Amino acid sequence: STLRKKLLDAFTEHEGEYLSGQYLADLIGCSRTAVWKHIEDLRHEGFELEAIRRKGYRIVKAPDLVTANEIRLGLKTSIIGQEIHYHETVDSTQKIAHRLGFENVPEGTVVVADEQVGGRGRMNRPWHSAKGTGVWMSIILRPSIPLPKAPQLTLLTAVAVVQAIGDCTELEPHIKWPNDILINGKKVTGILTELQAEADQIHSVIIGIGINVNQQKSDYPPELQSIATSLAIEKGEFVNRAELIQAVFTRLEKLYALYLEKGFLPIKLLWESYAISIGKKITARTLSGNLTGKALGITDDGVLMLEDDQGTIHQIYSADIEIG
Ligand code: BTX
User: In this predicted model, what pLDDT tens digit does every residue of 31-52 receive, in sequence order?
Assistant: First the structure.
């Protein structure tokens, strides 16, 4: 609710301070009893609040949840995450975001879930999204860019996620074109960009982001254990998911503004600085067959250029890449 949003915004702005019931009541425009009720609701959700007579309330500790409240507390963005739809369990956040996209929700609206039972990657491949362990979310953007430029947003998102992971953990992930984020060669994040378009006009871009955060190796099914990792495995510590989500929103909002103002070039430069495949021998598995050669880089539109042994340069729009 908007009252709840105002309440959490006030605690965010006055981080660590006590806020009196009267101050909060005036600020959000309700009675002190209503404030008290909201505080009790937060307690039920796992927030620890301290209440001191004559001083007021203070949030001591927030639970490790990815609810709208949890993400809202401390969030400083102005577009991304202003509207958050949280679900404990969903089939896929992409599906819900697609529905919302058609309903004209504001740009920057996010759908986030604690668990997905039908999470999907590209070409409908399953995306393992166990409860309480990761960040499973879909973000709705509405850039006025031509349709063929939409894949640039996948690369932009990858840069944002790499930076956000760095902000929260000091780990240094790498990007494998187009949408994998790896740490020590194992996948820690997948990004899936889908479009809603009419004629050649973009209506919504739905950016699905799956980040493995607190899984241990044994949490993965056997077939993923050798290819997947998590931030906790790599860092050796628990990582707070809501803080990571906030960092992604912050980085994404900044890069998106830069992109809308200056175009893809600055994003491309950042992307290249995190990419591992460039200059290496790769095999690209595409729907029309496999190509082997050297990865030269990406074009200004984000398309991968591969030079085969005959010296012919191929432009690759969609593929799975194997390095080496
Ligand atoms: P992708 O097609 O590049 O990768 C899918 C492949 O990754 C799978 O075939 C499997 O081998 C491997 N994989 C599956 N689960 C995991 C995992 N948890 N960690 C590492 N590797 C895994 C990547 O597609 C895009 C994934 C986007 C996921 C987000 S989550 C929120 C949103 N909702 C949704 O349904 N999808 C997106």
Answer: 999 999 999 999 988 888 999 9
Crossing angle for the helix pair 151-169 and 241-262, nearest 10 degrees? Answer: 140
Cis preceding-peptide flag for 178 (omega within 30 of 0): yes
Domains in the chain, ordered, with CATH? 2-61 (1.10.10.10), 68-274 (3.30.930.10), 281-323 (2.30.30.100)
Q: Could you read off the pLDDT of 82-123 as tens digits, one per residue?
A: 999 999 999 999 999 999 999 989 999 999 999 999 999 999
Query: 205 CB under 6 A from ligand 1?
Result: no
pLDDT digits over 215-247, tens only?
989 889 999 999 999 999 999 888 999 999 999
Q: Which residue has the tokens 């956040």?
A: 93
Give the ligand 1 atom nearest the CA of 180.
3
The CA distances from residue 192 to 35, 178, 259, 262, 303, in Å, are: 40, 10, 19, 24, 16
Q: Which residues pair with 177 in a beta bridge?
A: none
| Helices 265-274, 151-169: crossing angle, 10 deg rounding | 50
Ligand 1 midpoint to CA 28 (Å): 41
Residue 292 to residue 86: CA distance in whole angstroms? 43
Q: How far is ligand 1, taken at its centre, from the CA of residue 128, in Å?
A: 6
Say if ligand 1 is within 6 A of residue 72 CB. no
Contacts of 217 (CB under 8 A, 6+ apart): 225, 233
Q: How far is the CA of 20 from the centre of ligand 1 (A)?
A: 45
Which residue's CA is minimally distant from atom 4 of ligand 1?
121
Contact criterion met (CB below 8 Å) for 215 and 232: yes
Q: What is the pLDDT of residue 3?
A: 84
Cβ of 178 less than 6 Å from ligand 1? no
Asked whether 179 lines ligand 1 (CB < 6 A), one says yes
